[in-house]
Amino acid sequence: MRHQMESKKKKVQVVGPGKAGCSLGTALERKGWIVQEYLGKTDDLQDAAQSVDLLVIATPDEVISTVSRKIQPNPSTVIAHLSGVLGLDVLAPHNLRMGLHPLASLPNPERGADLLESGIWFGITGDPLGKEIVDELGGKYFHVADEDRSLYHAVAVTASNHLTSLLGQVERIAKELDIPFEAFLNLALETMKNIETLGPSEALTGPASRGDSQTIALHLQALPEDERSLYKLLSDNAKRLSERKE
User: Fold this and answer.
1) Are residues 57 and 23 in the same domain?
2) Is the alpha carbon torsion for 105, 109, 114, 117 positive or negative?
3) Which tens digits make up the pLDDT trace of 190-229?
4) Are residues 157 and 104 in the same domain?
């Protein structure tokens, strides 16, 4: 097969030396890939796809299409992006296209590379090189069709960014109470373990799960006014989740 890993080392060019691009570059380098010097916004990109097996456009989503069109196509080079929400059309005019979206938060290249090699899930589409890379990194994958990517990415944002935002609320209120945030973080981590074992519906506890509207009302009264709407929204969602158990 064209993309099977051979004894000859594969070469990758990354355009966009940010957290995601450098994390992937570092992870691939650990696996024996030759990583070319990272290219940024001030570099000439015309020949970026020449003499490499893979070119990754790891720029912000809004400029991926523009960057792709600046690169002279090479019929043997796979062009990839790391976006969760965009399809393969933004990689025109290249023929070999691939989407490789890691379901992980990549804070810096070293930690990011560790995460990419830790058995995480990837959403992939397009060229089969994506599957080969995931296999090489020791990960798991699923295919995401272009028409499903917006919904898929919305779920990914909820699982990561919105969870982080919610814990930010916990941290704010814990600080007002002069209680260590770590105490509530431990509760959250134990809850995640329950969810992993039982699933969300069976792991749900608390006033919404038992229909205790009086306690919810007391909570809303005690919360700062600007924190109430999120609590109310999540309580309603917890109630809906509890109804799935009945």
Assistant:
1) yes
2) positive
3) 999 999 999 999 999 999 999 999 999 999 999 999 999 9
4) no
Nearest to 13 by CA among 1, 25, 27, 31: 25
Residues 196 and 213 reside in one and the same domain: yes
CATH number of the CATH domain containing 199? 1.10.1040.20
Burial label, 2 (beta-carbon count in 10 A; 0-12, 13-18, 19+): exposed
- Domain check: are 125 and 159 in the same one? no
Domain that holds residue 34: 11-144
Assigned token pair, 213: 């509207």
Residues 130 and 100 in one domain: yes
Single pTM value for the model: 0.86
Distance CA 208, CA 224 (A): 20
Residue 232 and residue 213: Cα distance in Å, rounded? Answer: 11
What are the residue ranges of helices labelled H in the chain?
19-30, 64-70, 109-116, 129-137, 149-157, 163-177, 181-198, 200-203, 213-222, 225-243
